Please model this.
Amino acid sequence: MNGGKAVRIFLVAVLMAVLVTGAAWGDGVKVFSDVEPGVWYEQPVAEMKAKGIIKGATNEAGEEVFSPDKPMTVQEAIVFLGRLLNWDSSSTQVPITFLNRDKVADWAKGYMTAAINKGVISGADLYAEPAQPAKRYEIAIFAVKALGLDDEARGRSGMMLDFADADEIPLRAVGYVDVADEEGILSGYGGKFYPNESITRAQMAAVLARLDEKIDVARDNVVKAEFIGLSSYERALTVKKADGEFEKYFLSDDALIFRDNNKIALDQLKPLEPIALTLNAAGEAGYIEVIDAEELAQEQEYTVKGTLTAVDVAGSGISIEKEGGQEVTYDVGDEVEILLDYKSAELVDLVAGQPVEVTVEKGLVTQILAESIEETVEGTAVKVDFGVETSIVINTEDGAEQSYVVADNVDIDGDADSLRDIITGQQVELELKNKKVVNIDVTNMEEEVEGVVQKIVLAADPEIVVKVDGQERSFAFADDAVMEKSGKDISIEDLKVGDYVELEVIGSVITSMEVTAKIVADYLIGEIENVNRSAEVIILKNSNRPIYLNDDTEIIKFGSDVSLRHLDPGDEIIAVGRLNSGILEATTIVVISATE
Model:
């Protein structure tokens, strides 16, 4: 399912709303007062500062400084590593196995304790002086252990390293230096490793940044998204997050942005370029880096809660209205796990309206947890359609005609034993589960009506129209309908327009019909003025309403059936029938006095 067109239209609107005016943030901005713009360590220092891994100090002039060339102490290095790896630093009881535990500064005890408990500090390192500068080989050991590559390093302890000063590397550190070099965490320069030199704070920042690329630590203050645009007048940028939502972030005063390890102006960002934003304590973007699309895709694992609005089985896609009201569309992976009411299901089992919780990984839906929707609908049965997909059509309480698909295992209750027993006019209550009828409760709405037959339809399924209380109603016949006239069984062929009938019906289906001798119809009484036998028309004196006769008109004169030629001017009659546009269409004429 492709919602690309709608997304593109929305992006155009967003881009128009966040047009860049040309300002270039970052010019002249310093991470720390002693970190000059453009130096090789500017980016790792900026990144680690923004992520809260490294911190500076305030000098006598009130400036925040980092002291990049100052040697990093053992305990400082461990604190930085602990922050990077999100270690628990709540325990401050440094184990007695660490010989110089009493020399550990209070601010470092939590992370030093964690490092010892995790085995990052072990063996000969348990004798280290915490406040002394950390040697480069020590940092290699700490970093490799922190990565979980301790066994790999141990296995390389007897290797001959390709450094001119390899003989200066302590034997216990050889494997760790080799792994650190191979992983690109800490390498030498000029053909040497300089194992016993202290590592500077700037170099440590670079080590931390390289480690950060290799570890999988979730950071609440890092957002990976697609860049949409930025607004210079309010110092903000808009991004499209992994879950499809658009969000605006304000920029900190010292915000910096990097692409391919080079600092660039913010207005050089390209629409839809993948970026990682690091937010400060105020929620402002302080560090922005252009990342690989693959890195963004790998980070795009999230859950979405909402309501299904569409399911495209053929295209393997779904649309969801999220809890905030935004509608989003996702492609469904081939290996998707679907649970409907905690039972395994298929995409075809899902329907619009179901509450869902969806897991998305790398842009594809990998899991769908759906909940069935149940509803009840009441109305009057119109018909059951036994087509390719069985359905029942009803007139709902609001007067609308609706069709509902019937489940294969539907239950029928009440005044019907099967779908074939449901007839027009019965009251039905439908229980629907996921838009399919799973139960039908049928109630016969029995009614006694009486009226005059207005129309007879002789067909495979015969019907009659009867005027009941001034309203015309159509009725079909049940297969076992009983029809009688004067105590005798009749068929529909024996009915005549104008017959007075008493009906027992269920909905609009006749189960019993009695044709009575009671005359209830429009009528005229008067003396015949003229008889037009060829046109079969009678005119009464003092009446402007003609009386039309036809071959079925019954004429009764003194108890006998007679023909039109037996009527003469001067005869007084009662003409019974149906008035139509001022004309009486006679069904019966009774002569009450004659001229003869």
Notes: Residues 275 and 290 are 4 Å apart (CA to CA).
